[in-house]
Request: fold
Amino acid sequence: MLIGTAIASAQSDRLFDKEGANVSGTVVESSKDAVQLKKGGSTQSFASTDILKIMFQDDPQALTKAREFA
Reply:
């Protein structure tokens, strides 16, 4: 679930949407409806219904794999 995500500065998270986009940046805000990803000076908003997955830079590899299987 995306709510309550820990946010670190200078982090490079990756968001994958249903259209096949792979967008890198920092997750700056998340809710049940949307996720905001900041890259450089701009912030992009993605509707929760359009997101396939989010990979967080500092997550351990085992956690990333577990999320893939879930």
The mean pLDDT is 86. Residues 13 and 37 are 8 Å apart (CA to CA). The beta strands are 13-17, 22-30, 34-39, 42-47, 51-55.
